[in-house]
Amino acid sequence: MKRAWLGLAVGMALSGAAMAEGRGGSEVAAVNNKQYLSECSACHMAYPPGLLPARSWQKLMGNLSNHFGDDASMAAATQQALTEYLLANAADNSDYRRSRRIARSIPADAAPLRISEVPYIQGKHDEIPARYIGGNPQVRSLSNCAACHVDAAQGNFSEHGVRIPGVRGGGWDDDD
Question: Which of 73, 57, 55 is CA-nearest to residue 47?
Answer without folding.
Answer: 57
